[in-house]
Amino acid sequence: MLRRLKSFDVRRVWTFASQIGEEQGKWTPRIFVDMLVWAAFHDTAYIDYYEADFALLTKAERKTFMTSLIQHHLAQAVNDPVDVLQFENKLTFNKRFAEYVGREWLDLDETDAAGFRAFAEKNPVFIAKTPVGREGKGVFRYEAADVTDWDAFRQELLDKGQRLIEQRVVQHPYLSEYCEGTVNTTRVATFFDGEKVHVLMAAQKFGRGAVSDQFTWGGFFTMIDENGRSFGPGHTGKHKSRYETHPDSGKSIVDFEVPMWDQVVDLVTRAAKEVPTVPYLGWDVAVTPVGPLLIEGNWTPGLYETRVSATGIRTGSRARHRSVIEASRK
Questions:
Q1: 102: closest CA among 302, 296, 307?
Q2: d(CA 132, CA 52)
Q3: Residues 9-58: pLDDT tens digits?
Q4: CA-to-CA distance for 230 and 202, rounded, in angstroms?
Q5: The whole model's pTM is what?
Q6: How many CA atoms lie within 13 A of 224 on its CB side?
Q7: What is the strand order of the sheet 291-298 is part of?
């Protein structure tokens, strides 16, 4: 509580309240007070209140939604604080989940310029990543044809912290129809109770041609049901938005189906059992023409919820998280 009070920024909260009031036709002071109440007593960060359209929901409806604070509390309660490091570092993750990543990669710190060049000649378009990073901010795409001095280029990437070099993923043709220039990944949250793997939530992310499909690169998402189908229009979650079709390709978002969905579920189910001490995870899955593979795992699964102003759906995913909520209380 003391940490929250110290970090409290009344101007930032008022800015959120004003934006909500303007977008939803609500009285700003009332929104402001309501945000404070839900932050203090219901583990609802101001950005969660905004992104989930709480101003448009009843108290009972709000209680059906996950929030980032609740999710973080759950992750801290059930996930081992040491073993989660296997997921924070992408190099460590690729080594630990080698059978699931389905692509070639190298550690630039352990590879000389000649080895790097040989890799790039085999993979003319390749991906460079900072080992620790979030929201796609440390992901970059390069072409071997643009490099003239491999020693200098290798050192440049190392200086930028881009140690992890990966083979570019070729996605399923159906996903390419939506956005060819970006690998459109599926986020699946799982919980392993020691016997059974529960699929808690799934969301399909769509890119806009950038190297990543994350929001920071202009991406958006739609929620996915237990059968791998979209159940509403897409949205960014970050501002007022609604996508019944992809804004670039025109492909239907509301009719989207994750290709090879059964194989996606099988993949995350097997992967979720690999580190039992970290049972609550969010997986980024890329579906290729020959099957799904893992891009990464996140020990805090990431908050993905429907938004009533975009979808008309007034029920969140908290009920599907019952297994991990009960485990966190033990």
A1: 296
A2: 28
A3: 788 889 989 999 998 889 999 999 999 999 989 999 998 999 999 999 99
A4: 10
A5: 0.93
A6: 25
A7: 220-224, 197-206, 186-192, 280-288, 291-298
DSSP letters, 103-136, are S-EEEGGGS-HHHHHHHHHHSSEEEEE-SS-STT
User: What phi-psi label fits residue 136: left (phi over 0), alpha (psi between -120 and 50 degrees) or beta?
Assistant: left
Spell out, as residue ranges, where the chain has pLDDT lower than 70. Answer: 1-2, 4-8, 135-136, 238-239
DSSP-derived secondary structure letter, 55: G
pLDDT for the residue numbered 122: 97
- SS3 (DSSP) at 288: strand
End-to-end CA distance of the chain: 23
**13 token code pair:** 């909260």
Beta-ladder partners of 166: 105, 127
Quote the Cα angle for 263-295-209, to 5°: 105
Dig out the tokens for 109 from the structure.
């710190």
Three-state SS letters, 136-198: CCCEEEEEHHHCCCHHHHHHHHHHCCCCEEEECCCCCHHHHHHCCCCCCCEEEEEEECCCCEE
CA-closest candidate to residue 70, choices 330, 327, 325: 325
Q: Are strands 139-143 and 125-129 parallel, antiparallel or unpaired?
A: antiparallel
Checking phi first, is residue 232 left (phi over 0); if not, alpha (psi -120 to 50) or beta? left
Please state, as a whole number, how many other Cβ atoms lie within 10 Å of the Cβ of residue 70: 20
How many CB atoms are located within 10 Å of the residue 290 CB? Answer: 11
Distance CA(109)–CA(89), nearest Å, equals: 14
Collapsed DSSP state (helix, strand, coil) of residue 284: strand
Sign for the pseudo-dihedral over CA of 101, 107, 110, 116: positive
